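re: the backbone from monday

yeah here it is again, tokenized this time
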């Protein structure tokens, strides 16, 4: 897949080097080095070095090339919530892994992406556990991946066992539990982790929470809510009640993207299995 980007040099940028000009637009040093080696940076149609000075009115063209190695599978089920030339956002159902693995080599979001965007590397900006549903953004090129890494906001919705009447913040480090490659726990030698939660609805002995993360640790929401006595409904690994739902009741329901000067706000409604816990 090839993506060509064009940038006009403004009077305020007159005299800047091409490297500084492109770094201000999200290009990393590594990406610039790769583009320089491939001749992928041009000014007015001519090869441009990153040390060359630009003039107001110049047009800088960058050609991004890509290739993919994941097996395509168009039959994987996931709705497309948004798509443009730089990003595709899926509404992932529970049960679909994000990344291919030994156990899931042909039934993941990566395999669907490979079918929809052939010859493009699979670059999810964040990941969701297999049994967590909701929005997952995937960059279609290296520049979009670098820009979106710092410009994606996510809001999660979780249903927990028990009634929570006030919001709060959990600031407790998370690390891998001893003797397990999957389970995490609160531990002083873990990584900093901060979770903010607000109750939205209390019903049937459960609470629907709106959650934002200030950090992104594995199983962060699941571990933090269990640590204060409110495990996610269905989350058997961390003590949740599995009688009414067979997976953790967790959903990425809102996303805000910023790329190329555009702000994109997306919503994904609660799936039926979570909604049925409350209504």
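seq for it, each position gets an aa:
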């Amino acid at each position: 897949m090839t993506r060509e980007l064009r940038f006009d040099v403004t009077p305020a940028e007159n005299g800047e080097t091409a490297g500084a000009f492109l770094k201000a637009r999200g290009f990393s040093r590594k990406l610039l080095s790769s583009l320089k080696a491939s001749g992928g940076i041009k000014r007015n149609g001519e090869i441009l070095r990153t040390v060359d000075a630009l003039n107001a009115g110049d047009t800088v063209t960058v050609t991004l090339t890509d290739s993919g190695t994941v097996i395509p599978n168009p039959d994987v089920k996931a709705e497309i919530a948004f798509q443009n030339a730089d990003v595709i956002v899926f509404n992932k159902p529970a049960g679909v892994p994000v990344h291919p693995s030994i156990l899931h080599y042909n039934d993941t979001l990566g395999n669907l992406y490979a079918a929809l965007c052939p010859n493009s590397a699979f670059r999810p900006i964040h990941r969701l556990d297999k049994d967590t549903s909701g929005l997952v953004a995937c960059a279609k090129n290296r520049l979009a991946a670098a820009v979106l890494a710092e410009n994606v906001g996510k809001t999660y919705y979780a249903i927990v066992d028990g009634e929570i009447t006030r919001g709060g913040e959990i600031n407790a480090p998370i690390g891998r539990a001893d003797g397990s490659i999957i389970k995490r726990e609160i531990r002083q030698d873990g990584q900093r982790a901060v979770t903010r939660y607000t109750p939205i609805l209390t019903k049937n002995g459960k609470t629907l929470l709106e959650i934002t993360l200030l950090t992104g640790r594995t199983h962060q929401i699941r571990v933090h809510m269990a640590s204060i006595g409110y495990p996610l409904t269905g989350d058997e690994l961390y003590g949740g009640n599995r009688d009414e739902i067979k997976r953790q009741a967790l959903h990425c329901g809102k996303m805000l993207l910023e790329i190329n000067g555009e702000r994109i706000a997306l919503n994904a409604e609660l799936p039926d299995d979570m909604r049925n816990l409350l209504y």
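Helices lie at 18-23, 29-38, 109-116, 142-148, 220-227, 272-275. The chain has three domains: 2-65, 66-150, 154-252.
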